[in-house]
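Hello forum,

I keep getting stuck at the same step: I have a sequence, I want structure tokens, and every attempt I make locally crashes halfway through. Rather than fight my setup again tonight, could one of you with a working pipeline run this one for me? It's a single chain of 234 residues.
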Amino acid sequence: MMSAAIPSTAARALRARATALLAAKRTMGTATGGGDGGRRRGRPPRLGQTSVLVQSGFRIRELPLVVQKVNDVLKIAEDGSAPPPESIPVDEEAAEVMAGFDRCFSTVGVFKLLETVPSQEVTPPVAVHALKKIISLENASPAAAGHLMSSSSKKSAVAAGSHESFLRLAFINMLLDIVYRCRDPKVILEGLRAVSRDTFPGEQSAAYKERMCEETLVCVSEGHFSLEQVPFKT
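Reply #2:
Ran it on my machine without issues. Output:
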């Protein structure tokens, strides 16, 4: 029995945050193909939601928890420890690359610059900066996105599998893969903020939004940051 009481209002707020993020994952997963979280490709669910009761004297409070699911108990580390959080610095080269993205006036310009940057220089901070720039340009106007398309024609292009949407998805997934692999809380949270502002239609965008929510909750379950730090109003 634990001695510290959790205020009921705080517990409700945390539970609401966990529920909202998991619900966002399920909603996005349904949009990508079925109520199983869009996992027709065989990726098993990694997260679940539960709660524990905390007692102090005669008071009992409910504490919500986000937990990682165990699919193979034999692969659990002997010490049971999670990987430590990272803090990735932005050096001079990274700052120069990020400044280059800021000088781009279209997503095509960002894509072309990414093609010239050596892969080892696309660090997680650089990747999330490029991601934010792409989404910011797209949200600003269709012309800034590199092609003059209305909202309806954009949806038609996505449905038809146009070259622009394929190129965009390839670069977005490349950048997000770099973000996913890091365990820098600042980078993960900035990645979540970026994709939450992404208005590009289609199943592919729903899929990487779901993955970003999942990676955020994995970091929460590993203790890298708390649910209170997860942005819900962007």
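The longest helix spans residues 8-31. If your local run keeps crashing, start a new thread with the error log.
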